[in-house]
User: Fold this.
Amino acid sequence: MSERLLTIDNLSVTFGGLHALRNLNFHVDRGEIVSVIGPNGAGKTTFFNMISGMVTPTEGDIRFKDQSLIGLDPNQVTARGIARTFQNVRLFANMTILENVMVSQHCRTRQGIFGALFHTRSFKREEEEIRAYGEEVLSFFGSRLVGYRLHQPASVLSYANRRRLEIARAMATRPEVILLDEPVAGMNPKESEELTGLIGKLRDDWGFTIVMIEHDMGVVRDVSDRVVVLDHGETIAQGSYDEVSTNPDVIEAYLGRPAEEAS
Amino acid sequence: MTSAMRHKAAPRTGVDWFLFFLRGLLLGLVTVGLGAFVLQQIDPANPVTEWLNPGASRLSWDAAQGLIVSGLSQGAMYGLIALGYSMVYGVLGFINFAHGEVFMVGAMTGMITANKLDHGGLWESNFVLAILIAVAVSVVCSTLTAVVMERVAYRPLRGAPRLIPLITSIGVSFFIQNTSAVLLGPGAKNYPRLPEGLSDRIGIGPLEIEGKKLLVLVVAAASMSALWYLVERTKTGKAMRAVAEDKEIASLMGIDVDRTIVTTFAVGGAMAGVAGILWGILFGSVTEFTGFLPGIKAFSAAVVGGIGNLGGAMAGGLTLGSSESLAPQLILEPLGVTGHTQLKDAVAFLVLIFVLLVRPTGLFGERLSSEDRT
Amino acid sequence: MTSVEHNLQTPELAPARPVLDQDWRRIARFGAIGALALIFISLTDMPDKLDGRMIVEPLLSMGYFSLLWVPFLFGNLVTREVVLEGMVAHRKGVRELLAGALVGLLSSLGLVVLIYLLDTRDLSEPLVNWNSDLHTVLTFGEGNGYGMGFWIAVCVGLGLLGGLFHLLPRLVVQPLKAASIVVLGAVVLESALNDLSEGFGLESLFESLFKKGSDRGGLSVTGALVLAAFGFAWVFVLNAQVAKGKQVFQQAKERNRSATMTVSSVVGVALVLILPMYLGRLTNDLLVNVGLFLLLALGLNIVVGLAGILDLGYVAFFAVGGYTAAILTSPSSPGFSPELSWSVAIIAVVGMAILAGLFIGAPVIRMRGDYLAIVTLGFGEIIRLTVRSDWASGVTGGAQGILNIPNADVFGLFSFKGTDPQQMLYLVAAFCALAIYVSWRLENSRIGRAWMAVREDESVAEAMGINTVNAKLQAFVVGAILASFSGAIFAAKVGSVFEISFKILISIVILVVVIVGGMGRIAGVIAGALVLIGILGGPNQPGLLSEFSEFKLLIYGALLVWMMLQRPEGLIPNVRRSRELHQDEFLQDAWLRKQVDEDEAGGEGEVAPA
Assistant:
């Protein structure tokens, strides 16, 4: 059995009496692709916010490689090796595409004011390194984000390309786990099919472990090793796609839609 | 949203420790100062007082009540101005830096009207009628200023990045200030003399209040009640609250958002106009800079009371007014700070910083739409 | 990029609209605004007070110019259409002329009414400028009828001219613009040019252009014509050359380009070294003030422009620099008086600036942007009030300030005399160069990128592994250090420090400089400082147009509002910020190009490389 990377232990959070998440338990092993699904308002994004340190849970523990993440700031969580994307694409719109992937290597780099002022040799080497790695990450998506595009501001990108750049930005933080929040939302079928293939590559070629929130059941079926279903802040089912999609609770939660799509 | 939830119990970073220390320092200062004050009141010759503040004497009740009353009347004016800041922040989510100038316009136009009436003799023969005319003129002028300001400077900026309207309002403030200096001439301009009776002291319970200060408190309370009625009981008020909560949904529910925003500015402007003329009555003169410092302090009052919360704005104003009036005597003087009244304005800002460090949502809780809370 | 190109392409024009197909309400609105503007400007007394400064002797003074631009501009704007993609643009014709003339006519009515009222009513009670001088200026002392007729005729004419500008081809408009810029520029720079010509022994050239023996300054008629001709020539000859040079520069290889950069910076340094020797005392002094404000503006640019923190109490760091230097160097500082040399004191100044930056920065760094603005303003006032108070007067001198600050002595090698503007200019230029270098290097580094990320979206920056608290504190501290340098030089220059030199007003003026120049852009900030502080002057310092001193703060306020409404990106914009601020146009472009983009993306998708 492979190494256990992320353990969610009895996690709960309440916002003013409302249970956004209740007693969540599950784990992610290295090299897995786990999908988190559930109807709107089930608490999926809150769950991501908690892992990435933007929301502090009321109870329970999140452990990454046997160390608790509770109480860490988001930037420290990222430094430990967990990166994320956002549901409503949030790029640094007025920075260039290259700068977007360079700035997210911040926690992997050390150069301070001194190096920047005197352009020391180590400063130049580091700049070269992060630029090269940034371009490498961008070329994962073909030629769309490289070449003349490198020095364009992110705001000129099309919607699909913005989503791609968000994933590239998460990759650039050199994480072990990437949390993808609805990566194919708003993409057309062709684009989402391509991205599904790339998610597989993220694991196979780059060795990332992936936790993904997704509404598109086709994508979930194609890439997930395991599926976790949330509803009203609670886990109602876990297991392979086929197990979950035939689970009566899940069908009820979704009003029977996933079963139809699956067939 | 996230910032409130990310409050962590124990300090971890250097900044956390620094803030922890700063809060402690401020609290300690207040406690020690008050303690020294109590000792000084019991016996000015005790060794602590002799060491900290040699030559101190007791604060008499007469002096103390003077401080309380002037603190409260000044605070009531801050509260009236703060309502405008609070309402605009609630509806548009930005600080209308120029609101202090609306107040200044009220005080200026009040001064001009009062002097005209004084020349005509009405000021002396029928003071009540004269002051009502002056109030009407300054309320109309302030309201107009606020509405024009919204139309010209802020409406084109709906939906711009947050700092843009703030910077614009700084420009507007600067412009109005200097317009006043250039058109009306720089420097202080005096109100006509008040009738004799207004400077007499009137006894209410243990307090003896100067007539004009009582007038300020009464007018402030009346304006506040009128505003409360408008916001809580009328259709316009309901529309204002709805727009403050969510502009888009409000417009879908058939509310004219632009008109409601104009109404908000107008109401805030009217309150500032009332405050302006009260200022004139209380201090007797006005300059082009009259709006600047009281404006910022009134904004502080709005924050202290909890921004978007109208009752809070008034309470915040009273809190701020009385602390800047009392704190120098009660805290700074017993600690042996010489020239403590020079630090009155600094105290007001310290109160703001202290409240934001300890309770960022204000003493009475803020009421903002969800998008403005982040 | 593309939006600009679209605008430059002349779209196919629809036939001109009929003459009477007017937007009457728009004309009425513009006319009314024009009339109000004319009345307002008259009541500020600009026409009277600025009459003492000529543009072309004896034809036109700045006083009248302050009125004349109004009908022209509004006559032009009333029919201006922003041509967007997909809209039908009409050929311009008589319709535009009529609209312009009508706006001119309506505007002139403002002055007509004012002239009448000035003659019949006395409103001097609240309005201090309501007097017969203003009436004389407006009627040329020739009676109401003459004045009213004059203004109606001139305003209609100028409105017509404004409308005419739409009709003229670019080939005519551009040289006209250039000619007027050259003429006005020469007039504004008159005293500096005079200084310069004396320095280089070119008095004859200066005297051939400017009116001799005029106590009101101004170009001679021939001088104005010569300069206008020069402006024309500039467009036809030089513009093409400059464009060519730019092209060559852009096409040049990276290495050549950096060589060009080196050459131009060497030329720049040489200019800065040589120029002060030929400039007179006044111009040098003016440039010292520009430099002091530039230093402050460069620091604030890091804080506001790069890191997106609106610090309104920035003047506090200027005060920290000034007072630290004063206390440490002056022999007459009360209490603590070590009488260090300036160069040693500057090290302490940096230390104090870092401490002050951390002390003010730490409590405010986690606040919402607009709360932060007010709280920093509060800190600025707290520091000023404390410095002034009797309580601190044992160290800071209270309201009496600190006097007898010695010259700026640098390790015994040089001594920059505070009273000699030429020496001060070298000192301030050296520090400005340092600040420019620091800004430039930091902007293109790991820290600069982190600042920009924080400015763009703080919580995402945090999620991408940036310690936003540290990044913002660093910006605060770097900004504080640059401001404190300015303070230390200021102390040495003036020879004394008082608390009144550190009012909030300064913070706001610096903010105006940064914003008018262009937030986040070094060249923009330099341009902003030169234009605003150099021409209009700082809060307490005169500029080239010393006649404007009464109006400069009014103009600053109006400029700030106008900038925010019309050109939030500033004179020399940061490409990126202008993108953010003109997002609408970009969305439109993006919408147009979506099809292309998607096709391209789809095509590549099939051959997705690993």
